[in-house]
Every structure is written in structure tokens, then in C-alpha cells.
Write a structure and sequence with these properties.
Elements lengths: L1 H18 L13 H12 L2 H18 L6 H15 L9 H26 L6 H33 L7
Length: 166
């Protein structure tokens, strides 16, 4: 049941991510709806769910963008790995903690993606442009991730699903 719920939210997140245009300001970062699902799995579910969501979310993001297949998966795994390491220090029911976590992990995912694309020679960004884009994505992550967490928690409560931790 947990996997089905996460797959549902992954599809919802992917749909929102396609429908919302990239934010024109601060380097054109995309709204991190798919990343929010990965972070939710990393913070409140067993580790196997986080890895599955990161890989599936990466395939979804790469198929919806011009990025080579596998790049987004690496970025989502890196951001989710950071969230997993910080899981004990953050409370997923506190909006401010989730906002800080979302900002940090979104910046990590954006930085990893920029490094991978730069190494492959697909984009040429200066460190200042990369930092600007990471800041923009962090701002979006601080807003989107807590909203998505609340929606996912509300559905789980409504369905009577218990929380699964490692």
C-alpha cells in the first residue's frame, strides 16, 4: 500500500512539474515536486522506498526534460541521501524544519545536476550562475516541499496508513 501511495504522489508530482513553467528568475529552476516525493520517502519511509522513488523519479524527470537518462536519478539519490543522513535531526511534522530541509536538499540536487551536465559538456555555467540557480531552487524547495509533505501526510492519515520507518 505504501508503494502505491508513493507512486501516486510521484505521478502527481510529475504532472505538476510539467504543468508549472520553470521560474524565470534566479536561473530558471524547475519546481521540485518530484524531489518532494523522494524526500518524503527518504524522511518517513523505509530506505528501499526512497531508493525506488529516487530511481523512478529520475527516469520520470529525465523523460520529461532534455537531460540524459540517469542524470536526474543521480541528483535525486544525492538529495535523498542527504535527507536520510539528516532524518534524525528533522521533524517531518514541523513546517519550518521541512522548509529548511527542502531548501537544502533542492540546492544539493540542483548542484549535482549542474556538475553532471557540466562534466558531460552539455551546459556551460559559471560558478556564480550555478550558485544563483541553486539559490533559486532552494527558495522553491522551501515553499514546495512543506506543502507536498502536508498533502502526503494528510492522505496517509485519511487512508489510515501507518508510518513506516527504518
Amino acid at each position: 500500500m505504501t508503494l502505491l501511495s508513493l507512486l501516486f504522489w510521484l505521478l502527481v508530482g510529475g504532472t505538476f512539474q510539467v504543468l508549472m513553467p520553470a521560474w524565470r528568475y534566479m536561473g530558471q529552476p524547475a519546481f521540485p515536486f518530484v524531489l518532494a516525493v523522494v524526500l518524503y520517502a527518504a524522511m518517513s519511509k523505509k530506505s528501499r522506498y526512497f531508493v525506488i522513488m529516487a530511481l523512478l523519479g529520475g527516469i520520470l524527470e529525465d523523460s520529461l526534460s532534455l537531460a540524459p537518462l540517469g542524470f536526474s536519478g543521480c541528483a535525486l539519490l544525492a538529495a535523498g541521501g542527504v535527507a536520510t543522513l539528516l532524518r534524525a535531526d528533522f521533524f517531518t511534522f514541523r513546517a519550518t524544519a521541512v522548509s529548511v530541509l527542502g531548501a537544502f536538499c533542492t540546492a544539493v540536487a540542483t548542484g549535482v545536476m549542474a556538475i553532471l551536465l557540466h562534466v558531460k559538456g552539455l551546459i556551460v555555467l559559471t560558478p556564480a550562475e550555478t550558485g544563483w540557480r541553486m539559490l533559486g531552487s532552494a527558495l522553491l524547495g522551501a515553499i514546495v516541499v512543506p506543502v507536498m509533505f502536508r498533502l502526503m501526510q494528510a492522505l496517509e492519515r485519511r487512508l489510515g496508513m501507518r508510518e513506516e520507518m527504518v
